Amino acid sequence: MIILELKLFYRTQRDLATALNQLVDAYWQEEIDESTLMEGVKDLHEHNTNKMIKDNDYTKIIQQTCGKRRLEIIDKIIEKSVSQ
Known about the structure:
By secondary structure, the protein is mainly α. Helices cover 68% and strands 5% of the residues. The protein contains 5 helices and 2 strands; from the N terminus they run αααββαα. It has helices at 13-28, 34-47, 49-52, 60-66, 68-83; strands at 53-54, 57-58. It has a two-stranded antiparallel ribbon. A hairpin with a 2-residue loop joins strand 1 and strand 2. The longest helix is centred in the N-terminal third of the chain and has 16 residues, at 13-28. The N and C termini lie far apart (28 Å).
C-alpha cells in the first residue's frame, strides 16, 4: 500500500486538480483503499472548496485537468459526505 502526500491547503486550482488525480488514480490502481479515497476527497473538498467549485459547478481548470470519469467519482463522494 502506498502513502500519498496530500496537503490540506493548495495554492492553485491546478495543484488541487493534480492532487485529486493522484488520489483517484491510486484508488484505481489499488494502491489505496476506498476509505482512504473517500477521506482524502472529503478533506480536499472541505479545505479547498473555493478553488474546486464556482457557481455550483467544478471550475474549468478542475474539469479539464481531472476529466469526466474522475469527477463522477469525486462528485459521488462529496454528495455522500454532504448528505451525512
